[in-house]
Amino acid sequence: MEYLSVALTVGLFAAVGSAAYAALFGAPWVPTRQAERKSLAELADLAPGEKFYDLGSGTGTILFDLARSRPDVEFVGVEISLLPYLYSKARQLLGARHYRNVKIFFRDLYRFDISAADAVFVFLVAKRHQVVAQKLAHEAKPTCRIIVEAWPIEGIEPLKTQKTEKSLSLFLYRGDQF
Asked: Are 62 and 40 in contact (CB under 8 A)?
């Protein structure tokens, strides 16, 4: 019984600690609504064989939503908060035949290589945008489409802004803007 208590304590500490780390570094878990996911798919304008990265993928809702309709695209999620990551991995395993084109990693988005991405989605608090902008400047392909939700990146004019009545704004950039 003592081992179970220790295991539960360690597990709880890991879950809470990873959530706190994610929130501290700009990625508190806030789900993207269905209207925003539809707009995101339009802005990403994915072609067969391309790679779409969701930096801070949470429970994988965006990845799974897009992957169902686009089996010809590779979707990559990166999540540092343990509970959303485990949820997304369980969902991926349970729907394995539908999500063969989805990969999810338990990693820090700031240390994850995005150089192979054709499109990147980021939903972080605005105070972390400059750190992400530096990452994009070093790693994003010039043609990579970058979609940022909620707040524009200060000092860089978006190529397009999309907003519907009941959704947050989405801002489209290209890698060569960074």
From this structure: yes
